[in-house]
Here is the input.
Amino acid sequence: MSVSSERTVHGSRTIYRSPWVELDLVGVEPPGHERYEHQLVKFAPVAATVVLDDLGRVLMMWRHRFATDTWNWEIPSGIVEAGESLEAAAAREVEEETG
Here is the structure.
């Protein structure tokens, strides 16, 4: 248990984990309030890259996102793999996503 002037944290437990995201429930007690469970979402580190050509134009990808069933313009991005630098991850994702 940790105590600060802002709140007391009574511990946490992970209720979902994947390579991309983790969801924890954290027991929190703010001063003068009852204890409650707070949801904490942790995302894997991501590298995103803005690629410019000689004219200053930005490389964008037209991508479909199934969760929202929408199409959007995006820059190349993706999860940084264990032991990989941000620069290496950014270069790899540009190659993987745009060829």
Summary: The radius of gyration is 20 Å. The chain has one helix and eight strands.
